[in-house]
Amino acid sequence: MRFWKTAAVVVAGALLAGCGPPQVDQGASGEDKSTGTLRVWLFDEANRDPKEDVVNAAVREFEGEHEDVTVDVRYIAVDTRSERFTGAFNDPSSAPDVAEFGNTDLASYVAAGGLAELDTMLGNWPAAQDLSESVLETARTDGKTYGVPWFTGVRALYYRTDVFEELDLDPPRTLGEIAEKARRVRAARPDMYGIATGGKYTYAMMPFIWAHDGELARGEGARWESAVDEPAARAGIEAYTELLEPNVCPPEQCAQLTGTESVQAFAGGKAAMTIGGDFNRAAVDAGAAGDHYDVVPLPGTEPGEIAPAFAGGNLLGVLRSSDRSSLAEEFIRVLAGKKYQREMYEAMGYLPTFEDVQNQVSSEDPTVRPFVETLQAGTRFVPATPAWSEIDAQEILPTMVQRIVTEGELDSATAEAARRMNDTFRD
């Protein structure tokens, strides 16, 4: 059975740039009421109905088990989340008790002092033992946990089965084979990109760095140092930029492509491969490639390896200002628990964060299996620091990639990117 029921699903934590930390002084509430109204903020969707149906079912269950408690759910626009959270951190009377937020926003919100630690809650919740450890890592900063992973998203390699069959090609077994087979496609089918990927598609580049044992940066807390100019990272960056050459995906057409645009090119029949997320399946199904594609995990540097993917996704957390923190934690255990994660997958196509639930859905729906295999092979994340949102906003890494593919300056471009990253880390 296939559960890809919606139009393209946007995973906010995976696809949107993080926002700078709200500069506030947020104190923890001294109260912990067990009755009254529990306020909840969740992200709105282009089509809210499937998500709202699942949330409403969880609310009914929770209210049925908690006499004299009402759950008030408000849906907020993802694009205005920075302003909404800044206001909530500054004014506890307007703040929710429970909130959904992207995992790339976590470090900023923690730096603002707006979120409560959840390590004790997770330690007392038996189901938490089945949470994917690498996904749970996206809810941590400075060794403490501030969110429960509600759903996650990873990217894998999409390829055109009809084109590969026509050219007698097998799916790439290594990252190096991606460029090799993309060149063969481009030579035989000059009307297509060998692979659609872009200079502004940083989440596609990251696995190449990690698969070559490189890092984006090293550090913890407030002390980080860029690593993109180290030999291992440079090897991964070089392997990625080989995909942005005239005989694969010409720089004049591909250097400006974002992730969304790369997937759109594949979905529209303009490319033989792309790196796309589980959340892109509906869009690809609806496009020209819809009946002629398959997905495999993005391979590593050796046959049989899977490249570490960026783990996007959203978390549920408790605000420090909440005067119903115990109720808030209990509600999260319901809404982010196995039952409703499974229902969210069926309604929205969001990948669960519990490994046993992942195994269930992949055994029932083979189309999701490559993404689950990627998740369970181990994912990675961006540096857990508020500075990362500034690095992202400045487009330091896209600028680096574009300089490499247009000027051929690998060493100087990575050195300049490292310098700019370090300036931002130290600000």
From TrEMBL:
Gene3D superfamilies recorded: Periplasmic binding protein-like II
Annotated organism of origin: Actinopolyspora mortivallis
Protein name: ABC transporter substrate-binding protein
Lineage: Bacteria, Bacillati, Actinomycetota, Actinomycetes, Actinopolysporales
Biological process, per Gene Ontology: maltodextrin transmembrane transport; maltose transport
One Gene Ontology cellular component: ATP-binding cassette (ABC) transporter complex, substrate-binding subunit-containing
Family listed: Belongs to the bacterial solute-binding protein 1 family.
GO molecular function terms listed in the Swiss-Prot or TrEMBL record: maltose binding
Keywords annotated in UniProt: Signal, Transport
Listed InterPro entries: SBP
A Pfam family assignment: SBP_bac_8
